[in-house]
Each structure stands twice: as C-alpha cells, then as structure tokens.
Amino acid sequence: MRHKTFRFGHLRLNGIPVGVHYGNLLVAQADEAVAVDWEVVVTTMDELRLEPAPYDMHLELGDGRQLWGQALLVRSDGRAHVFRGGNQINGFSADEFPA
User: Fold this and answer.
1) Contact status, residue 14 vs residue 69, Cβ threshold 8 Å
2) Over the chain (99 residues), what is each successive 10-residue block's mean pLDDT?
3) 69 burial class (0-12, 13-18, 19+ CB within 10 angstroms)?
4) How far apart are CA 17 and CA 2, in angstroms?
5) In 3-state terms, what secondary structure has residue 16?
6) Separation in Å, CA 62 to CA 11, 23, 56, 76, 97
7) What pTM does this model have?
C-alpha cells in the first residue's frame, strides 16, 4: 500500500466556498491496483448541515495547488466531515507516491 497526505486550507463544495479550520486529504493505492482511493477529513469554521450525498470537491493546498473530484459524504457531525472519493482525484498523479 502506498499513500500520501496533503493539508489544505481552502475548500469548495459544489462550487460554494467553505471556511476550513483543518483539512486533510489522504490518497492511497493498493499494491496491485491501478486506481487510487482518497478520503477527505475536514473541520469547518461554521456548522454545516450536509446530506449524505455526492459532492463536487475542490481543494486548494497551501502552495496554491488545486485538487478536485467527486466524493461521497460518509460522516458528519455538523463541523467534522468525512468524504470518500468516488473516482480519480484530479491534479494528482500516482507518480507522486513516495518510492
């Protein structure tokens, strides 16, 4: 299993900016897999009442790099939210995994 973690400070859900207190993206790939899996854990500044549904996510890292894709909200308590990527995360290449 290979993985890489990114911190992010800016998030848009379905095109709407969301204030981020803490954001973490984990991208992982099983040894024989071609596709990657990804998960976002984010704590928002304001309470958000989100339905468990797919969301278009657009993340901006501290260096300005953009990563985006569709993810399903799997858990939320109003401030802490967990999303699982439903497909490829755009802006990331499997070549970026540490050797």
Assistant:
1) no
2) 96 98 96 92 97 97 96 97 92 91
3) buried
4) 31
5) strand
6) 12, 11, 20, 24, 19
7) 0.94
